[in-house]
């Protein structure tokens, strides 16, 4: 954990910088305004450089990758630099981590990421050839195996100065034979080697309170995903993605708790679907982050 003096110093520097670039920092925690590029997954293949420039124009300064759209590491990094963006984190599903871990880590190291995140779990025993992806469900042993693998992978990423972490969706919070998978991840994943990226929106859809998770486990979360839903209490079937501030999630208590932990380093907006033209949507999200008072 950083000291209170260091935290205040960082916040003061952010506030000073924001006087010249008013959209550069998210107001709640004084962190660089960041976005998960999954938000523009449909736009990037059509106009990679132009999409990144529009992301920057909306006010974002940091990004988290979700695929590289056929670009080499050098091409990806150059496009980011041209747009004035920095890629600080990368998402990879467990299936890819099992088959091309070293390749992905080398790519991410070259573009300069600091966090290497598993974005979805995998089965301990791979699906038989030809089996449908939804032909079976995760067992609690599958979840425990994933946590153990994360510890092993974290040792490899640490060797090149990158932190390994895991990003949740909804199923992590659904009990299996009386055991909540996310609690097993917290129990098994080594806090000295790994981190957790808390997707606040999906946690709320699952019936959890992100502020309670951060309060009860104050040293485990270094990054947040920020998204809004209409009717999040409706669960997967009833919740509908919308722009920040247009739904029913109140992020003030979440950001207040994040500030108390002094552990969160990045907060990524993730807009999984648009209720308006995509460039307008990104601006709405950026304005929400910059204007929210906690």
Account of the 3D structure:
The structure is a single chain. This protein is α/β, with parallel strands linked by helices. The chain has one domain: Divalent-metal-dependent TIM barrel enzymes (TIM Barrel, Alpha-Beta Barrel), CATH 3.20.20. It is 41% helix and 18% strand. It has an 8-stranded parallel β-barrel with strand order 3-4-5-6-7-8-9-12. A two-stranded antiparallel ribbon has the order 1-2. It is globular, with a radius of gyration of 18 Å.
Mean pLDDT: 91
List the strand order in the largest sheet: 3-4-5-6-7-8-9-12
Roughly how many Å is the radius of gyration? 18 Å
CATH superfamily: Divalent-metal-dependent TIM barrel enzymes
The CATH architecture: Alpha-Beta Barrel
- How many domains comprise the coordinates? 1
Top-tier CATH class? Alpha Beta
Kindly estimate the percentage of residues that lie in beta strands according to DSSP.
15-25%
Number of helices: 11
Please give the number of β-strands.
12
The helix/strand series, from N terminus to C terminus, equals: HEEEHEHEHEHEHEHHEEHEHEH
Instruction: Tell me about the largest β-sheet.
Output: 8 strands, parallel, barrel
CATH topology: TIM Barrel
In one word, what is the shape? globular
Helix content: 40-55%
How far apart the termini lie comes to 21 Å
Spans with pLDDT under 50 lasting ≥5 residues?
1-24
Helix and strand content put the structural class at: alpha/beta
């Amino acid at each position: 954990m950083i000291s209170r003096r260091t935290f205040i110093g960082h916040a003061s520097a952010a506030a000073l910088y924001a006087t010249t670039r008013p959209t550069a920092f998210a107001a709640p925690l004084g962190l660089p305004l960041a976005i998960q590029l999954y938000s523009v997954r449909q736009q990037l293949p059509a106009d990679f450089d132009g999409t990144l420039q529009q992301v920057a124009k909306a006010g974002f300064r940091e990004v988290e990758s979700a695929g590289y759209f056929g670009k080499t590491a050098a091409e990806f990094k150059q496009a980011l630099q041209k747009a004035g963006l920095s890629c600080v984190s990368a998402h990879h599903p467990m299936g890819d981590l099992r088959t091309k871990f070293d390749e992905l880590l080398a790519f991410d190291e070259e573009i300069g990421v600091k966090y290497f995140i598993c974005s979805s779990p995998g089965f301990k025993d791979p699906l038989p050839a030809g089996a449908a992806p939804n032909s079976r469900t995760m067992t609690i042993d599958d979840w425990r195996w994933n946590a153990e693998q994360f510890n092993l992978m974290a040792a490899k990423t640490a060797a090149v100065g990158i932190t390994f972490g895991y990003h949740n969706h909804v199923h992590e919070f659904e009990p299996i034979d009386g055991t909540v998978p996310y609690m097993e991840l917290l129990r098994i994943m080594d806090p000295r080697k790994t981190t957790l990226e808390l997707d606040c929106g999906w946690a709320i859809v699952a019936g959890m309170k992100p502020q309670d998770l951060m309060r009860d486990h104050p040293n485990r979360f270094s990054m947040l995903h920020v998204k809004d839903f209409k009717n999040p209490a409706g669960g997967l079937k009833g919740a509908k993605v919308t722009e920040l501030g247009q739904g029913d999630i109140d992020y003030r208590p979440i950001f207040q708790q994040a500030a108390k932990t002094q552990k969160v380093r990045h907060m990524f907006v993730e807009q999984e679907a648009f209720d308006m033209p995509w460039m307008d949507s990104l601006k709405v999200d950026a304005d929400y982050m910059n204007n929210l008072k906690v």
